[in-house]
Amino acid sequence: MATTNEPGTQSAVVKDTGPEAGRPVVELRGAGKAYGNIRALHGVSLQVRPGEVTCVLGDNGAGKSTLIKIISGLHQHSEGEFLVDGEAVRFTTPRQALDRGIATVYQDLATVPLMPVWRNFFLGSEITRGPWPVRRLDIEAMKKTADEELRNMGIVLDDLEQPIGTLSGGQRQCVAIARAVHFGARVLILDEPTAALGVKQSGVVLKYIAAARDRGLGVIFITHNPHHAYMVGDHFSVLRLGTMELSAARSEVSLEELTNHMAGGAELAALKHELAQVSGVDVEELPEEEDLTAPVPATPEGKS
Ligand SMILES: Nc1ncnc2c1ncn2[C@@H]1O[C@H](COP(=O)(O)OP(=O)(O)OP(=O)(O)O)[C@@H](O)[C@H]1O
Ligand SMILES: [Mg+2]
């Protein structure tokens, strides 16, 4: 692509994704958002391509949710540009984003726990049959389609009649992903889908993120976890205090580098300095600055 370097990202390590990459479905160019006088996001450039996973990493308050709220139509950007299929847009409702094929799976999945899996799959978009005024829900068609779509994604559930509330958090995320794929999403936004999950369930969700990518969707995967990001990511964007600190293709960044960006070596060193002035904290036991920028601190509490 021509440019990823926008004013406002000068301090970022911006690398190009290469000429072979496809045209972005969704693109932000120097985008930002202020809530009153709080600048939550500033100068962020990001490209989402079909068949790729774009990971957005960052600590609490980094601006990750603000970024996806702009793309999913919940908030509007107050600076820069937001493009879909190369056309500048400004969504005022999530419906407008959905109509352009941008589906968002929020962490607190909007499901009805006591309703069966197949019913949740079609929630708000039920299949009906028969003419008005005797139109009825086409239960058989919905069950069959839900079953097929879940299987197409490699998700096998014993019984689609079971209430969705009885599924594990990971399984519910997977159903939400299959649902977005079925309803024609081209871009799938996942807000920290693995945050509340254990190792095994996270693995399952990562597998379906890869499955959605292989079906040609552009995936935006929000996470705190560089390990999860690196397992499926094609591109990595690290946000810090609302600006983009790193934007790099997979070939340009190692897991160690990504982890270091997330760990914020310099910030931890500053914290150590501050803690030194608080009585009761033995800073000698904290790792040295060099250790903080080294790959994944193994056992920080180990006394040497
Ligand atoms: N509606 C709002 N009004 C005012 N400030 C907000 C609003 N939403 C977010 N902010 C502020 O914007 C900044 C970025 O918040 P955001 O929720 O985007 O971060 P985040 O990266 O999603 O964090 P987390 O990992 O905790 O979810 C924070 O300083 C937050 O306090
Ligand atoms: Mg958030």
Descriptive report:
This is Sugar ABC transporter ATP-binding protein. Keywords: ATP-binding, Nucleotide-binding. Residues 26-266 form the ABC transporter domain. The structure is a single chain. By secondary structure, the chain is an alpha/beta fold. It folds into 2 domains: 13-254, Rossmann fold; 264-304, no CATH class. It is 31% helix and 23% strand. The chain has helices spanning 64-71, 94-99, 117-121, 139-152, 169-182, 199-214, 226-232, 255-263, 265-275, 289-293, and strands at 13-14, 26-35, 38-48, 53-58, 79-84, 87-88, 102-105, 128-129, 136-137, 187-191, 218-223, 235-240, 243-249. It has a 7-stranded mixed β-sheet, sandwiched between helices. A 4-stranded antiparallel β-sheet has the order 3-2-5-6, with helices on one face. It has a two-stranded antiparallel sheet with strand order 8-9. The longest helix is centred in the C-terminal third of the chain and has 16 residues, at 199-214. The radius of gyration is 21 Å and the shape is globular. 38% of the residues are buried. Residues 1-20 and 296-304 have low confidence and may be disordered. The chain binds adenosine-5'-triphosphate and magnesium ion. Adenosine-5'-triphosphate is lined by residues 35, 38, 40, 58, 60-66.
